[in-house]
Design goal:
Largest sheet: 10 strands, mixed
Bound molecules: alpha-L-arabinofuranose
CATH architecture of the largest domain: Alpha-Beta Barrel
CATH topology of the largest domain: TIM Barrel
CATH superfamily of the largest domain: Glycosidases
Strand content: 25-35%
Helix content: 10-25%
Strand order of the largest sheet: 23-22-26-20-19-16-1-21-25-24
CATH class of the largest domain: Alpha Beta
Number of helices: 9
Number of strands: 26
Shape: globular
Radius of gyration: 22 Å
Amino acid sequence: MKTAYLKFDGEKTVSHINKEIYGHFSEHLGRCIYNGIFVGKDSPIPNTDGVRNDVIDALKEIEIPVLRWPGGCFADEYHWHDGVGKNRRPILNTNWGGVVEDNSFGTNEFLNLCEKLGCEPYLAGNMGSGTVSELASWLEYITYDGNSPYALERKANGRERSWKLKYLGIGNENWGCGGNMRPETYADEYRRYETFAKNYSTPDMVKIACGPNADDYNWTETIMQNLKSWHTGAISLHYYTLPTGDWSKKGSALTFDDNEYYKTISSTMYMDEIITKHGEIMNKYDPEGKIKLIVDEWGCWYDVEEGTNPGFLYQQNTMRDAIVAAINLNIFNNHSDKVIMANLAQVMNVLQSVLLSDGERLVKTPTWQIFKMYLPHHDAELVKTSFAAPDLEKADKTIPMITYSLSKKNGEFFLTASNCSLDEDCTMLIDPEQGEINNVTAQIVNAEIHSYNGFDNNTPVSISDYNGFEIKEDKLRVTLPAHSVTAFKFKL
Ligand code: AHR
């Protein structure tokens, strides 16, 4: 059996793992909001103010820390004022399926939902087709407590107190669907929008500039040059895992061979390289590291499921997605000095979701299981480690067999590991430089790689207790089974 070696000093920590790394994204896209999270007050599906109760419970169970809304590409054509009050003006969703939405889910509904979930709201403002004053008035509506015109309108709409708003994105993918801008143009526009984006209830709001698409390093370079001292708390990064690497034929969520599986893993691993390289460029212009990185769209993007609306991006979710989620979350943890937030695309019924629904039935996907398993990493400290593990030669690529991250919180250590091999287990020797490992408990997610959780209550991909470990000569020796994600808690 192959062996991986992990050494650590329990006293040495590197960075704080912001719990917002475990964030989510909800766009007006397909059945994410309408007929997904939001079914309306009159629905026979049990709901609170139109939001499904089972969805609220399932998201609370994974302690969702932050939710991004209303897009995505939708954000740059969304006009918030049409979605508040009694008389809502419908909107044509030109990006996603060409459907007309009645705007019954708007600002009040979203911010109230975040309060119910106990999570931070993250709004994406409309720069592409909106105006500076539209964004400024949105912030006044949400955050001003006095008697200004928009605050009075909010009060008349039933909300007396302002809401808190910690995260504001200025535009989305402005290099593409958000206006096809050059980075120089975007940087100038950002400065104009940012100047008037005044938050009255949350003075430390993080203003987020549109960052690069995947490995567009020139975008990052230009944005950093122009915005380094311009009220920029973070820049965003979007990177999706495509099994084939070809947008015209991405690959199926359920039907894939070993080769396509390993291509999916290799494409996921690329996240580590692009975060590292964007981070290096950012450090060049901002050596103190004040500007952070937010990976506000990530996940697997497959061909839509046959028979579904191609504009709705509905896809199933298998054990392969669980491994992809585990790899990405380990990567984000290990870059937590730079990455302060990440948002899975998307929370429900769209792309790599944690929840899928079919009428009143709801499924917690394999990806949901990983978010649940990784909970102890929230707001923990990343531990300094050294590591050696075998690589796999698959699909014409060299792929790390094992990914991991180790954190510490309240005197307890938490290690998560993924083994992407389809047929080989791996032993991992965990060696603390000081002290003895004790009080070990473990969990595992491991199923045949095509397995998925069905609407018929058949849920083969779920978390189980695991006893594949032993302590020998002060070291913890664990077995990481083929195609598994494991988690170990212990003390020193
Ligand atoms: O998540 C789906 C889409 O992917 C988003 O709307 C857009 O920002 C990205 O291209």
